[in-house]
Amino acid sequence: MTKKTAVIKVRDLVVGFGDENVLDHLDLDVRAAEILGVVGASGAGKSVLLRTIIGLLPRRHGTIEVLGIDLADAGEEERRALERRWGVLFQQGALFSSLTVRQNVQFPMRENLDISQRLMDEMALAKLEMVGLAPQDLDKFPSELSGGMTKRVALARALALDPEILFLDEPTSGLDPISAGDFDELIRTLQQTLEITVFMVTHDLESLYTACDRIAVLADGKVVADGPIATMLESEHPWVKTYFQGKRGGMLAERQISA
Ligand SMILES: Nc1ncnc2c1ncn2[C@@H]1O[C@H](COP(=O)(O)OP(=O)(O)OP(=O)(O)O)[C@@H](O)[C@H]1O
Ligand SMILES: [Mg+2]
Hints:
Helices cover 40% and strands 24% of the residues.
């Protein structure tokens, strides 16, 4: 696959609840092996978009192709096969609290693969190392982990089936800036070594500067701006202007230019 191929193609998407449409004729492409940052005000519909793309929310109109398949046309088997090709880190409820780290990471394996416990143990260990955790963390429960470790375990679980696409909803929220920076670097490294396509919802300006290849801004139910940081800094859209050229955004932009 070349860099330009769209692995996710959203066209004319309408999603709503009751009388209101949260997404209103939205178009979006996510290209192979890129890290796309999705931003927008709280309530703009970022999580709704993510959940609709992976088939957890119904749409009122439009098409969504992921890896060439539209879930709306897919049968049960095709759907399950497609679901195995992506990993998700949700905004809330990252881990099963009654399961250990090992069991959490092995959960998708148990659901989808017919392999021995020994092989699953080896795979869980490999995933844990991939996200920068130690073997002794395998037998901890979620309540024994820090926020940053929890995010890493959730990421290890999202990577359990060697996905082609990674969906991340606010992966660095709640982390201190250094842990968040480490996490961004980890995503970047994983994307480069595994050539995964990453769809990342984030509020974190730092992530947008350091981790993302391209940014899509959600407002009024649509993608109102998309492109690299440079495009965001030139945008005339009021929300984009305030967000990227406001006090915090401006500081980061200056740092980027002087670096
Ligand atoms: N299951 C649901 N039923 C009804 N309304 C919903 C549902 N899920 C989301 N909404 C509404 O859709 C809108 C968009 O929600 P969404 O969670 O996508 O926002 P968001 O952009 O992810 O915000 P945040 O940055 O705060 O996470 C909100 O008005 C929310 O109340
Ligand atoms: Mg959200």
